[in-house]
Specification:
Bound molecules: 5-O-phosphono-beta-D-ribofuranosylamine
CATH class: Alpha Beta
Shape: globular
Number of helices: 6
CATH architecture: 3-Layer(aba) Sandwich
Strand content: 25-35%
Largest sheet: 7 strands, mixed
CATH topology: Rossmann fold
Distance between the termini: 17 Å
Radius of gyration: 16 Å
């Protein structure tokens, strides 16, 4: 089976990174995680990458760059150097410049812990809970210049329980994310898609 190289960009815990690494390792997801980039020196995700033996693991310090574009350019160069086909955002908490987004057009994906287009933004789980929705979930989408608005690749639904807190709901959404993100990557590598307006039509 053809495998494709990916770069994963992280800022936090890295549990989605861990799920992708595990799925790849078990042969469920035909990707090689070749590069992991963090904008946070203390992101636990970096240790997950080290434990998994990822070849290139980098903390790229935003303070060392005068602006967003120069930071993103440094990331582009690393990703290009390692010939990564897909760029996978997994809890990457930095707005991307148009330079970065256009460079990886249709090859840059994100996962968001709500059913987009509802509850975009930094607190998708809390916003959905306080709005009172009975179902939430997670969305894998192409990244465009507007935050959380790119075309939707896949979604999974999670029911909201009466006694849910932000933490308990996020925990259940996470469990879905760990299945949905590797599975979507598998479809990207094995099937591909075309766009009909905003609609992602998977090849059969
Ligand atoms: C996930 O819930 C994801 O949807 C959001 O950030 C969180 C990252 O969690 N974009 P982790 O770092 O993968 O544990």
């Amino acid at each position: 089976m053809t495998r494709q190289s990916i770069a994963v960009m992280v800022s936090g815990r890295g549990t989605n990174l861990a799920a992708i690494l595990e799925a790849a390792n078990k042969g469920h997801c035909p990707v090689d995680v070749r590069v992991v980039i963090s904008n946070k020196v203390d992101a636990p995700a970096l240790q997950i990458a080290r434990d998994a033996g990822v070849d290139t693991i980098l903390f790229i310090d935003p303070k060392k760059y005068p602006n967003r574009s120069s930071y993103d350019q440094a990331c582009v160069e690393v990703i290009q150097k390692h010939a990564c086909h897909w760029v996978v955002l997994a809890g990457y908490m930095r707005i991307l410049s148009s330079l970065f987004v256009s460079h990886f057009e249709h090859r840059l994906i994100n996962i968001h812990p709500a059913l987009l287009p509802s509850f975009a933004g930094a607190d998708g789980v809390g916003d959905a809970l306080s709005y009172g929705v009975k179902f939430s979930g997670c969305t894998v989408h192409l990244v465009s210049e507007q935050v959380d608005e790119g075309a939707i690749l896949a979604q999974a639904v999670v029911p909201v329980m009466n006694d849910d807190t932000v933490e308990s709901l996020h925990q259940r959404i996470h469990q879905k994310e760990y299945e949905l993100y590797p599975e979507t990557l598998r479809c990207l590598v094995e099937k591909g898609f075309r766009l009909d307006g905003r609609r992602v039509i998977w090849n059969s």
